[in-house]
Amino acid sequence: QIFCSFHFVNFCISSYILPITSNKSNMSQEEDTNSTLFYARNEYYIGNFMGSVNFVLPESSGSGSELLSYMYLSYLAMDSGRLIANDIKENNNTPLLALRYIHEAFEQPNKVEDILNKLTDKVAGEEDETNIWRIATAIVYCYDEQFENALKILHGSTNLESMALSVQCLLRLNRIDLAKQLVAKMQEISDDHTLTQLAQAWVALSSGTESMQDAFHIYQEFCEKYKPTPLLLNGQAVVHLGLERYEEAESVLRESMTKKHNDYDTLINMMVLAHLTGKSQETIQRYWEQLRQFYPKSQFVKDFDKKSDEFDKLCLKYSIDSAA
C-alpha cells in the first residue's frame, strides 16, 4: 500500500453501494444499451452519481424498484441520504426499504446490529428477484467491517454486481488471489462489462507496481469513453502515486477537485501526495481538517482517531516509565 492512498482501493462508503441488477439476467448491459436503466446503471458505475439521478428522475413516477434503486443509491453516495428517509417510509413494502436500512446504518452506527437482523431476515424469508435485499445486507456488513459475513451473503452468486462487491470484500481481507479468481469468472460472464473492467482495475491496483499501469489504462479508457469523474480520476491518481509520478498525480487530483471540491478520496490522496512530496505540515493539516469537517463518521477518520489515541497512551506510558 502507498500509505493511505490505497484507501481508494479499500473503498469509501460510496464504493460499497454497488448497483443492483435483477437476477433474471447478468447480460442486461449488453441486451439494451439504449434503455434508461442501462444509462442510470452505467453512470453510477463510473461515479457520475448526479448523472445517474438525472436519468432516473424523469421516469421516477411509476418506475420499478430496480430503476429507482439507482437514484437512491446515488443519493447515498452523494451523502444525501435524508432524501431516502423522506421518500421511503418504514412501512414501504417494496425492496427499496432495504435502501432506507442502509441509510439508517450509516446514520446510526449503534443500531447496525438491529438493522442487520432485519436485513438478514428479509434475505432468508423472501425471494429477491431484484437482488436489492442481498446487496443491501452485504453493504451494511461491509460498513461494519464484517467482510466475511458479507461474502457469505454473496457466495455463489453469478450476478455481476454481487461478484464485484465480493471482489471488494476479498481485497479488504488481503485475499488478492481469490479476488483474481473471481474477476476471471466475471470475465467469462461478460468481459467488457463496466463492472468487470473496474474489478480488474481494483485487483491490479492491489497487486502492486507491476500491474498498476493496467489499471491506469482502464481508468483512462473510461474517462475518454464517458467523462472524467472523481472515482475514475482517483484511480489514475493512485497509479501515479504508486509509480512515484507525483506531478501527474497532482494534476489528476486537482482535476478531480474541480468536479467535487470536497470529494472523500481526493482529499485523502491529496493529503498523501503532500506527505510524499514533503509539503508543509500546514498543507497536510488543511486536507485533514476538511476530511474531518465533511466526513466525521468515515472509517478513515475513525481509524485515524483510534491510532492517535493509541499513540497518546503509549507516549503517556513511556513518559511515566522514564520518570520512574
What does this structure look like?
This protein is mainly α. The protein has one domain: Serine Threonine Protein Phosphatase 5, Tetratricopeptide repeat. Helix content is 72%, strand content 0%. It has 20 helices and no strands. Helix 12 runs parallel beside helix 14. The longest helix has 25 residues.
Q: How would you summarize the topology of this molecule?
A:
Elements: H1 7-10, H2 13-16, H3 28-31, H4 36-45, H5 49-56, H6 65-77, H7 82-87, H8 97-107, H9 112-125, H10 132-143, H11 147-154, H12 160-172, H13 176-190, H14 194-207, H15 209-225, H16 230-242, H17 246-259, H18 264-276, H19 281-294, H20 299-323
Short description:
The chain is mainly alpha-helical.
Q: Which key features would you list for this structure?
A:
324 residues, Serine Threonine Protein Phosphatase 5, Tetratricopeptide repeat, ER-Golgi transport, Coatomer subunit epsilon
